[in-house]
Design a protein that fits this description.
The complex is a heterodimer of chains A (241) and B (243).
Chain A: E1 9-18, E2 21-31, E3 35-40, H1 47-55, E4 62-67, E5 70-71, E6 81-84, H2 96-107, H3 111-120, H4 136-147, E7 154-157, H5 166-181, E8 185-190, E9 201-206, E10 209-214, H6 216-223, H7 228-240
Parallel strand pairs in A: 3-8, 3-9, 6-7, 7-8
Antiparallel strand pairs in A: 1-2, 1-4, 4-5, 9-10
Helix pairs in contact in A: 2-3, 6-7
Chain B: H1 3-18, H2 21-41, H3 47-78, H4 80-85, H5 91-120, H6 129-151, H7 157-173, H8 186-193, H9 196-209, H10 213-236
Helix pairs in contact in B: 1-5, 2-3, 2-5, 3-5, 3-6, 3-7, 3-9, 5-6, 6-9, 6-10, 9-10
Classes of the chains: A alpha/beta (241), B mainly alpha (243).
Domain ABC transporter (chain A): 9-232
Keywords (chain A): ATP-binding, Nucleotide-binding
InterPro entries (chain A): AAA+_ATPase, ABC_transporter-like_ATP-bd, ABC_transporter-like_CS, P-loop_NTPase
């Protein structure tokens, strides 16, 4: 199989069925190391399934995913890859800090890391509060904080900015870019197309296929659209027409 | 197995319990209240001395079964299990983490209940008290292990609770609480031999009667074998990859 050995993620002929329906029927794609790759597309297009396949929690019917040259989900990768699901997957009956300390011990992060991520997601003053007393946006930031605890090399984030106000979204994107500057590779999914402009690379998914593998600038110039929403619609029209 | 991750998990489970004082009170006080009710009901008869020990074997089992199946189910449904399985933690770290935490809760529960039954209700126990506690802890671990297993087959908390009549009640009915096992119809006696709770009740009755140690440890090791089997089966129900 010919692929770039420096790629962070290589997906080859991936076939996944979920709940009786076909999600992927031979998906191929690559994600280069470094930068933020935006996984864009309407809901139901397979974003979450692809992310689960990359972190190795998705049962697949065929093909495979390799991450940093190893099979997705293998033991050697679990220190290097972190995943944040769409719903805040933290313990709602524990405080923010108790959640972080627990996951820190699992991934071998230090107490210092707990303080660092609290600052990064701007929740230092909520550290002693139970997660079920936080707002939805705060809870999802706790979940994000857990994902960045162990300084993973690949960070897979499923709709991390959904439901956040513009200011917080801005702050989170600056966290993402800091992580990239430190050498991490980020895969961020979103169905809000205007987030596409903040990514370094874009993968547009539709009905379990890669409709475009591009950059924000190229997407706009090739479609002649002035915003990513229209660019996406233009791509669909081009395919259909 | 990694002890850091196992104990981190136990600590986390106990911390969750610590945020729920009502559950702690129920866990510690409810068995004593029910034991007290039995003792009161059968005042001035010898019935309580007959079935009291068996009841002591029952509570840790039932309570831990419920707590474990509901807590584990919550973990499966809240997305934290999927997150955990994408981290370096192993399935056995997780399961033993749970078992240690609930085992510890069971020790405290057994201590309170045994003390209440003997000191307050005047339960007559010939054997050493600590072995009564030991049987209670092994029963609690059996409940934890079966609860872990049951949680795999339930989609909702409601279903998890309904597994109790299915998995627990037959064991109580055939366990020798209502009728000595050797007086049961042959078929039922044979079935009861294959139910772990029967052996737990045998063990606790042996302690109460002051029988030789082997009569306590033989059934207790059978219960332990069931527990280990259920834990192994439960670990198979935690696949990293799910559909």
């Amino acid at each position: 199989m010919d692929h770039d050995p420096t790629a962070a993620v290589v997906v080859r002929d991936l076939r996944v069925r979920r709940g009786g329906g076909v999600v992927f029927d031979g998906l191929d794609l690559e994600v280069a190391r470094g930068g933020v790759t935006g996984l864009m597309g309407p809901s139901g297009c397979g974003k979450t399934t692809l992310m689960r396949a990359i972190v190795g929690t998705q049962r697949v019917q065929g093909g495979g995913v390799t991450v940093f040259g190893q099979a997705a989900g293998s033991a050697g990768l679990r220190h290097r890859v972190a995943y944040d699901t769409q719903a805040a997957s933290v313990y709602s009956d524990l405080t923010v800090e108790q959640n972080l300390r627990y996951f820190a011990r699992l991934v071998g992060a230090s107490r210092k890391d707990v303080g660092r991520v609290l600052d990064q997601v701007n929740l230092r003053d909520r550290a002693g509060q139970r997660v079920d007393t936080l707002s939805g946006g705060q809870a999802s930031r706790v979940s994000l904080a857990v994902a960045i605890l162990g300084r993973p090399e690949l960070l897979v984030l499923d709709e991390p900015t959904v439901g956040l106000d513009p200011l917080l979204r801005e702050e989170l994107w600056s966290v993402f870019h800091t992580l990239v500057d430190e050498g991490a590779t980020l895969i961020v999914s979103s169905h809000v197309m205007d987030e596409a402009l903040r990514c370094d690379r874009l993968l547009l998914l539709r009905d379990g296929r890669v409709m475009a593998d591009t950059t924000p600038a190229r997407l706009l110039s090739e479609t002649g659209a002035d915003d990513p929403d229209r660019a996406f619609l233009a791509l669909i029209e081009r395919e259909v027409g | 197995m990694n002890l850091t991750r196992t104990f981190a998990t136990s600590g986390r489970v106990l911390r969750q319990l610590g945020h729920d004082p009502r559950s702690i009170v129920l866990l510690l006080v409810a068995p004593s209240l029910l034991v007290g009710l039995f003792a009161w009901l059968f005042t001035d008869t010898s019935v309580f001395d007959g079935i009291g020990p068996a009841i002591l074997a029952l509570f840790p089992f039932v309570v831990m079964f419920l707590i474990t199946s509901v807590t584990t189910l919550r973990e499966r449904r809240s997305g934290t299990l999927e997150r955990l399985l994408s981290t370096p933690i192993g399935r056995f770290d997780l399961i033993f983490g749970y078992a240690f935490a609930f085992g510890l809760a069971a020790i405290v529960q057994a201590f309170v209940t045994v003390l209440f039954a003997v000191r307050v209700c005047g339960l007559d126990v010939e054997g050493p008290l600590w072995s009564l506690g030991l049987v209670a802890v092994v029963d609690a671990l059996l409940g934890t292990a079966l609860g872990l297993l049951a949680s795999a087959f339930a989609r909702t908390e409601f279903q998890a609770v309904q597994f109790m009549p299915l998995l627990v009640f037959p064991q109580i009915i055939l366990g020798g609480l209502f009728m000595p096992r050797d007086q049961m119809p042959d078929v039922l006696h044979a079935i009861s031999d294959w139910l772990p709770l029967s052996h737990a009740i045998d063990a606790v009755n042996a302690v109460a009667a002051g029988d030789p140690a082997w009569d306590v440890y033989r059934p207790l090791s059978i219960v332990s074998a069931f527990t280990v089997g259920a834990v192994l089966l439960a670990s198979l129900t935690l696949p990293r990859r799910t559909p």
